[in-house]
Amino acid sequence: MEYTSLRRQANELDSAAEQQQRLANRQADSLTSTALKNQQRSARNANAQMDSARLDAAASNLVDDGSSRMREVDMATRLQDEITHTANTSLQQAHSIREQGAYTAWNTRNAAARARYQARGALLSGAGSLFGSLASSLSPASSTSTTKRM
Does 48 reside within a domain? Predict the structure, then answer.
């Protein structure tokens, strides 16, 4: 009976480990997809901001003196740094989720392996006690003690 329950527990733990891993991967994939969409949206917004800055520079005649080019380069660099930082942060979070999911699944699989090991021990212990009692009932010493009592 103990063997069966331990084997069932091990199988349930294996199933839980697989579910944990799949869930972590789905969460990480979702986060990665969202990061990619946000990065694309941020790039479109950055382009719009750059266009607006160019129009402002042209309207104020800054294009002629060259300072608008420096302003444009600074703004493009700042916007690209923000986009890259945001994307990297999201990707690092996705990576952490995957790692945590793998670690949790590994721990759960370890518990399943321990349950299987205990199940084998219970099976062997039960078989050992069965053979032990059978051997003692068939041994010559037990048959001698039975005849002396008669």
Answer: yes
